[in-house]
Amino acid sequence: MRLAFLLLAPTLVLPTLARAQDPLDHYSDAFETQFAPDQPVLHYTVRVDGADLQQFEVRLDVRGAPDTLVLRLPIWAPGAYRVADFAQYVRDLSATTGEDGDDALSVRAEPDSSRWTVVTRDGRATVRYAVRFPSAVAAHTPNNRSFLQPTGGLLDGPLTYVYVEGEKLAPAHVTFQLPDGWRIATGLRPTSDPRTFFAPSYDVLVDSPVLMGALHVWPFTVDGVPHRAAYWPSPAAVPFDTTAFVAAVRRSVEGARTVFGRLPYRDYTFLFIDGTGGGLEHLNSTSIGVRSTSLARDPRASTGVTTHEFFHAWNVKRLRPAPLGPFDYQHPVHTTGLWFAEGVTDYYADAIARRVGFVDEARARDALATSIESYLNNPAHDRVSPERSSWTAWNGPGANDGYSISYYLQGALIGELLDVQLRQATGLRRGMDDVMRLMFARYAGAQGYRGEDIVHAVNDVCGCDLHRFFDRHVAGAQEIDFDSLLAPLGWRVVATRAAATTDDGAPAPDLRISVTGFAGIGSAGGVAGSTPKLSLSDPTSAWYRAGLRAGDAVLRVNDRPVTDGDSFRAALGQPAIGSQVRVTVRRDGRELTVPVTVTGYERVAVRLEDVAEVTPAMRAMRRAWMTGTAPTSGR
């Protein structure tokens, strides 16, 4: 059914925000270190021994400690909506005191193993523990979370630092003892000692990963603000065009800055790892996996994930759903807003690529068609709403009766469609950038936002009422009428359903199955040593119909052991239609071997075509879509 929208004449103006009160109430608020007299003084020391790269050691010196010191490790990482039992990797936690540090203190480990109680003496305690990877493979596999190799590594905050319960706002210093020649790149504040850094709170400490080793570091500035791109090359790294690579990173920064008008940090560090892909945003840094072989083919190979993670410096790190702040590191926190926090950020990854010239109009149009194609090919698109997919992010792949759709994809499409509607309603003068700036002005910081706040901001920018759109396509899961909503751009959706084929035109086997999990330690996708879980978003697939279910722990495929995504794909191979694949899983404590007969399948192919008559107004809309600004002529 086609949707009808009342596009009001642009007579309403966006409410002018009075200059916000200065965020600092007093000049002393700008002092670097703030603390209460009764807060403990904390100093961490992290030691990496090049002779044993399956673990690292941590020492925490506490002065001004309470009589009973309660220590905890998080069970999840900011930005990663998966629970991870980091404490299972802690070994030999002990505590001492005394002038020589050899007077043992009582330590009691709680049954859940993520909480330790230390009985202190004279307000002092020195806590020591090791963090040990469960295997050499887990330790040495480069990824964007945690690993150690002879030439460097990455340490992630939630795996590394225990916090003092009730004192997460206490400042801390951290010193690194590393093999000779290893450099450090991190978002933590530097000090006069190149191996010691400062964090004004645990939230900052835990959200500042540390890349170390034989690094390449390229500094650049935007608006006078220092930035750097640090890259750890694997021993098998190949050369690539570093000038073009860094230039692309800078263009991403400039494109995102244009949305908000200014940069929100004192400096920013990009941590690139020559390893498996993916990225995770942090307060003033991001950790991204991109293989040097990919960059050798295209120095812009990582621009999509780079722009996405960098845009989080505003949208998520400083503007976030209210339930996510302050962080509760011990309990999953549900929110309906991840479609905006993550999905709209994905929209901006595409929008900024258009604006800075990474793609031309034809490629941008094809990318939008591909997103629509992914949406229509997922049977969850009219069953699971963006708010529902956001809310069940913690529930794992088995949520929503086996139907699963990404809030990244949903939010990116919602962002595109809202931008078109806003520009249509305001004569191209306003769009999603105005929504982001208004949301940032109203809700950045401690307050956060809720679902209704997004609707109000959109309506205020629009000067119209888009509640119906939100009810149908954000809170609800009604199928989107793309033809109607993309009409102002002069495009129509051509969707054809047919048997899926390979590149040479032969029927394609149904390989709509994957796993979550990787060899490194982290919470975005899996934990080292844990069994990968099946991800099945389509109950019509051959795999689901054979009896496999999302969330099944995968043990073997065709009798070959599966430990991560790479080993799963290698074991699966390229089975022919009609062949049988045996998948051994663990479900509810039982081991099952499920035979799957591989079939073909149908899919929808989508392309965007020009309507019969592309008007000057439509072309002006396309120019605004490509550049992010309203054209001054040509309407």
What's the short story on this structure?
This protein is of the alpha+beta class and 635 residues long. It contains 17 helices and 29 strands.
How is this fold's topology laid out?
Layout: E1 41-47, E2 55-63, E3 68-72, E4 90-97, E5 103-104, E6 106-109, E7 115-119, E8 124-132, H1 136-140, E9 147-149, E10 152-155, H2 157-160, E11 163-164, E12 172-177, E13 183-186, E14 189-190, E15 196-199, H3 202-206, E16 210-213, E17 216-222, E18 225-232, H4 242-260, E19 268-273, E20 278-281, E21 285-289, H5 292-297, H6 303-311, H7 338-355, H8 361-377, H9 386-391, H10 407-425, H11 432-443, H12 451-462, H13 467-473, H14 482-486, E22 491-499, E23 514-516, E24 533-535, H15 542-545, E25 553-557, E26 560-561, H16 565-572, E27 580-587, E28 590-597, E29 602-610, H17 616-627
Parallel strand pairs: 1-12, 18-19, 19-21
Antiparallel strand pairs: 1-2, 2-8, 3-7, 3-11, 4-5, 4-8, 6-7, 9-10, 10-16, 12-15, 13-16, 14-15, 17-18, 20-21, 22-29, 23-24, 25-26, 25-27, 27-28
3D architecture notes:
The chain has 635 residues and is of the alpha+beta class. The protein is 26% helix and 24% strand. It has 17 helices and 29 strands. Strands 5-4-8-2-1-12-15-14 form an eight-stranded mixed β-sheet. α4 (242-260) runs parallel beside α6 (303-311) and α7 (338-355) crosses α10. The longest helix is centred in the middle third of the chain and has 19 residues, at 242-260.
